[in-house]
Design brief:
43 residues, Transposase
């Protein structure tokens, strides 16, 4: 048993916060774990 869900652990080569958020958002959206308006509510 793991405390992490392997499908939602991310490693990124992005260098800016916005890029990381976009990359994670795109993946979560594909997996239907967030809605399309999720990204616009991030800082």
């Amino acid at each position: 048993m793991s405390i992490f869900c392997e499908e939602t652990v991310f490693v990124s080569n992005q260098t800016a916060q916005k890029g990381v958020f976009r990359e994670v958002y795109d993946d979560l959206l594909k997996k239907k774990l967030v809605t399309v308006d999720f990204f616009e509510h991030l800082p």
